């Protein structure tokens, strides 16, 4: 197994810049448990968090491709430096075995996504309370919860917090956590293998709690919708718990069977809005504590002032700030925060959909008429999908706004977003193209038109 890890390192050495490889991949120390577990030891908490957020999924994918298995890579802190290779091996062999996981199926839950780690504010309090009530069998209207929010606002955190709570407190309950795309792929595989009876038994008889993410993926997929309807009816009759998530309200998802829409709307529907200022500061405070780093309050407030829409982006900015301070061996201050903010510049409202369309057209040599037209040529479709994705991601445009600006139907916009998400997972080249477009956007004149003022020192306690 160690030879496979060395091959993975070799792959990343060729893929990453030399400085990034030396900083984040080379220091990782691999070890293997008696039951086939694969551990990567990290030198400090911040290092572990950065690798988990930026490299872990890619490392796992390459390792699985090489081994043909489904090994999960587990990160942990390197408590004491190894004196030599022999001593290091002895230390690893003497580790206590990991506690076995409670019953579950589908994707592994992120153990960091708990109710205790969720920062509650005015924008998400109802969603938090509803999720907590459903998980804990408290007073709750029905057994179905539909969480809706734009990306990066916490719907996946709450969905997985429900699963983690149930696994901890009801250890014999089966929690199924997966995306709607996972469900569809598993059903298609079962059909091809003549294993639909096992598929139905698994989801209808073995599941106590179903956490289904990204249900808008089901738009227009009638056979998948029909099977899911039967599954949900069965689970509802057995009084099982159901949690659904999507960036869209159920009524906004086009080409959805009435029966499935009825299931999605049959319980509590709770939107999560962007956090207010005080909640954003609280989130940054919690994340800094998790990384065991002291960040001045005026710096946290400064970041919270300019990064307002996306919690994930705000936390990413904090990580970039901490990394820059550690790399440059300098204090965390407002000047450094402004350098990081210029890379994100989320406060700028000068950027428009038309600017993204124009840039994408220039890069792919596609005219505005072709981009907004009906051509299905591969180059044009790629440019169109990327323009839609960037408009959705950077400008937080709603489905209806994107449909109008790109002269498309709601379902076509959803399909474009799904195509980009899918290609990002499987193609490093495609990801590089998207990154190039993002860099071009972030260095454009319009992107930087709104300058960042130097704020006065905070007077808050």
TrEMBL record:
Similarity annotation: Belongs to the DnaA family.
Record keywords: ATP-binding, Cytoplasm, DNA replication, DNA-binding, Lipid-binding, Nucleotide-binding
Primary location group: cytoplasm
Name this polypeptide is given: Chromosomal replication initiator protein DnaA
SMART domains, per database record: Bac_DnaA_C
Role according to the record: Plays an essential role in the initiation and regulation of chromosomal replication. ATP-DnaA binds to the origin of replication (oriC) to initiate formation of the DNA replication initiation complex once per cell cycle. Binds the DnaA box (a 9 base pair repeat at the origin) and separates the double-stranded (ds)DNA. Forms a right-handed helical filament on oriC DNA; dsDNA binds to the exterior of the filament while single-stranded (ss)DNA is stabiized in the filament's interior.
Ligand binding (ATP): 152, 154-156
Keyword Iron included in the entry's annotation: no
Compartments it resides in: Cytoplasm
Gene name, Swiss-Prot/TrEMBL: dnaA
Domain-level remarks: Domain I is involved in oligomerization and binding regulators, domain II is flexibile and of varying length in different bacteria, domain III forms the AAA+ region, while domain IV binds dsDNA.
One Pfam family cited in the UniProt record for this chain: Bac_DnaA
Gene Ontology CC: cytoplasm; plasma membrane
GO MF term list: ATP binding; DNA replication origin binding; lipid binding
Subunit composition and interactions: Oligomerizes as a right-handed, spiral filament on DNA at oriC.
Cited PANTHER family: CHROMOSOMAL REPLICATION INITIATOR PROTEIN DNAA
Region (Domain I, interacts with DnaA modulators), start-end ranges: 1-80
Gene Ontology biological process: DNA replication initiation; regulation of DNA replication
SUPFAM superfamilies reported for this sequence: P-loop containing nucleoside triphosphate hydrolases (SSF52540), TrpR-like (SSF48295)
């Amino acid at each position: 197994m160690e030879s496979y890890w060395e091959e993975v390192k070799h792959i990343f050495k060729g893929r990453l810049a030399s400085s990034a490889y030396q900083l984040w991949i080379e220091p990782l120390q691999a070890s293997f448990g008696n039951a086939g577990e694969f551990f990567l030891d990290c030198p400090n908490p911040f290092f572990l968090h950065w690798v988990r957020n930026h490299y872990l999924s890619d490392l796992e994918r390459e390792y699985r491709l090489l081994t043909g298995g489904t090994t999960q890579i587990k990160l942990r802190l390197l408590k004491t430096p190894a004196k030599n290779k022999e001593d290091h091996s002895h230390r690893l062999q003497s580790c206590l075995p990991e506690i076995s996981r409670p019953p579950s199926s589908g994707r592994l839950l992120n153990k960091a996504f708990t109710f205790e780690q969720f920062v509650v504010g005015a924008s998400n309090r109802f969603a938090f309370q509803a999720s907590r009530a459903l998980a804990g069998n408290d007073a709750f209207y029905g057994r179905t919860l539909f969480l809706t929010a734009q990306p990066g606002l916490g719907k996946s955190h709450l969905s997985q917090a429900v699963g983690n709570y149930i696994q901890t407190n009801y250890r014999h309950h089966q929690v199924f956590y997966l995306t709607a795309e996972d469900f569809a792929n598993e059903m298609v595989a079962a059909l091809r293998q003549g294993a639909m009876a096992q598929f139905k038994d698994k989801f209808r008889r073995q599941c106590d709690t179903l956490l289904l993410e990204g249900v808008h993926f089901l738009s227009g997929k009638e056979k998948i919708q029909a099977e899911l309807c039967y599954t949900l009816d069965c689970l509802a009759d057995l009084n099982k718990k159901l949690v659904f998530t999507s960036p869209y309200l159920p009524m906004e998802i086009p080409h959805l069977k009435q029966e499935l829409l009825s299931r999605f709307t049959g319980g509590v529907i709770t939107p999560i809005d962007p956090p207010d200022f005080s909640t954003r500061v609280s989130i940054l405070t919690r994340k800094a504590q998790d990384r065991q780093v002291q960040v001045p309050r005026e710096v946290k407030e400064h970041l919270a002032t300019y990064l307002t829409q996306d919690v994930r982006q705000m936390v990413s900015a904090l990580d970039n700030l901490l990394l820059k301070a550690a790399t440059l061996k300098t204090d965390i201050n407002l000047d450094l925060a402004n350098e990081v903010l210029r890379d994100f510049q989320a406060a700028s409202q000068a950027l428009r959909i038309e600017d993204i369309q124009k840039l994408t057209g220039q890069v792919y040599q596609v005219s505005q008429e072709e981009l907004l037209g009906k051509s299905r040529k591969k180059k044009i479709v790629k440019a169109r999908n990327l323009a839609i994705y960037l408009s959705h991601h950077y400008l937080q445009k709603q489905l209806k706004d994107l449909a109008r600006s790109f002269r498309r139907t709601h379902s076509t916009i959803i399909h474009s977003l799904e195509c980009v998400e899918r290609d990002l997972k499987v193609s490093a080249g495609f990801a590089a193209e998207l990154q190039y477009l993002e860099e071009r956007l972030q260095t454009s004149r319009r992107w930087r038109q709104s300058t960042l003022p130097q704020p006065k020192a905070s007077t808050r306690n």
